[in-house]
Design a protein that fits this description.
Blueprint lengths: L8 H11 L4 H8 L3 H9 L6 H11 L3 H5 L4 H6 L6 H8 L15 H16 L3 H22 L2 H21 L2 H17 L3 H17 L3 H15 L6 H20 L3 H18 L12 H14 L3 H9 L9 H17 L3 H14 L1 H5 L2 H11 L9 H8 L2
Helix pairs in contact: 1-3, 2-4, 7-9, 8-9, 8-10, 9-10, 10-11, 11-12, 12-13, 12-14, 13-14, 14-15, 14-16, 15-16, 16-17, 16-18, 17-18, 18-19, 18-21, 19-21
């Protein structure tokens, strides 16, 4: 069984191009994407890189998620995840309604523990567990925050909003993710937490990165650095500052500014030397390992695929590293391996991405586009290649 033509990214690009009555040459000119790259992408011969997708989305005046085909509705329905989205959307709309008389919140400690547990679930790649519980937590934490009005209550609510953002992003609902981040920033402001406000700006910057709006992403990183700079000096501030530099590095890499990307990586590396591995500090997984993983990502974003593969070849991840982050790394590495012609290595990395966090990998555009790029070479791949495609829904 092969990927259905109407389902792959290249076919969607072609469909939107024809709707705009553009030739391939015209779209190439207006987007800045090389003609040969565009034609091969439309044919499904090569995968669409994030940079190419963002350029084409801007030129076609659509969201990147539209070209990715997100959300993957059939798969969400099969996994019974689609029915969990509406309750999250409804819960996010309760933020300014005050205390709900029909809600009896648990203790501050129990709510904080559940919010922390959902962060752990997301990082473990357990999206269904997080998605099924976050809406109820938001409702309960909203009433608790309005009733107690303590900084701790608002921080718990901000954490719940962050989980809603993570779920929405990973399942392919960018509009819902943007709303969750707005709520997170609102709650963090009421908690007077410069650190959490800085984290929300980091996540907003990544949202603009995915949408191909690099200028806005850079502005948000700058604002985030200014915000977190107001926090008390210490490891938490250092970790969030370092993570903001990693985000800036990826934005610079995708906008083809490799010099700027390396400068941000160097600053993050300097900070990581002082913090060490800080996997559990606000669950950002910051530390030397994350700097190394981002170096691979930056090189790939800058189309330096050979260098990215070399950087990722001997990379050793900590044993307690989040499964979600591990899965994302191997998905990115797989794409670079595909571009260098290492077909077998690319498929092995896809399998490792799936093994680390199956639910996340199933809904990852990077995994899907890399698989589609491998599809034309399936005769050279192991027999379980087609079963991998069936698992993705092809």
């Amino acid at each position: 069984m092969s990927a259905r033509p109407q389902d792959h990214t290249g076919a969607r690009i072609k469909r939107h191009r024809l709707e705009r009555q553009l030739t391939q040459k015209a779209l190439s000119d207006v987007s800045g994407v090389a003609y040969s790259t565009l034609t091969k992408t439309e044919q499904g011969v090569i995968p669409a890189t994030p940079y190419v997708l963002s350029c084409l989305a801007r030129a076609l005046r659509v969201d990147v998620s539209t070209l990715n085909g997100q959300p993957y509705v059939a798969e969400l329905r099969a996994d019974e995840l689609d029915i969990l989205i509406l309750p999250i959307r409804e819960a996010l709309d309760l933020y300014d309604l005050g205390v709900d008389p029909d809600v009896a919140p648990r203790s501050r400690e129990r709510l904080a523990a559940e919010a922390e547990g959902l962060c752990v679930s997301v990082r473990a790649g357990q999206l269904k567990r997080a998605a099924s519980r976050v809406a109820a937590l938001i409702e309960e934490a909203t009433t608790a925050a309005h009733a107690g009005a303590a900084s701790e209550d608002w921080l718990t609510l901000a954490s719940a909003y962050r989980t809603a953002y993570d779920v929405a992003t990973k399942l392919g609902y960018p509009d819902l993710a943007a709303l969750a981040l707005t709520r997170m920033d609102w709650a963090a402001g009421r908690a007077s937490s410069a650190v959490v406000c800085g984290i929300s700006r980091y996540m907003r910057a990544l949202s603009y990165l995915r949408a191909g709006q690099y200028k806005t992403g850079r502005r948000l990183v700058t604002l985030g650095l200014e915000t977190v700079g107001q926090a008390d000096d210490g490891r938490e501030r250092a970790v969030v500052t370092g993570q903001l530099h990693l985000g800036a590095a990826v934005i610079a890499g995708r906008s083809q500014n490799l010099t700027g990307a390396k400068e941000h990586l160097a600053e993050a590396e300097r900070i990581a030397t002082g913090t060490g591995e800080a996997v559990k500090v606000w669950w950002l997984a910051f530390g030397p390992a994350n700097v190394a993983v981002h170096r691979v990502s930056v090189l790939a974003e800058a189309n330096e695929y050979e260098a990215a593969v070399r950087a990722g070849a001997d990379l050793s991840l900590p044993g307690d590293w989040p499964s979600s982050r591990t899965s994302h790394h191997f998905a990115e590495l797989s794409q670079s391996q595909l571009w260098t012609g290492d077909i077998d290595g690319a498929f092995r990395s896809l399998v490792r991405s799936r093994k680390a966090a199956p639910q996340q990998a199933r809904y990852s555009p990077t995994v899907r586009q890399t698989y589609q790029g491998l599809e034309s070479a399936k005769r050279r791949l192991p027999g379980d290649f087609l079963s991998f495609g069936s698992w993705l829904g092809y």
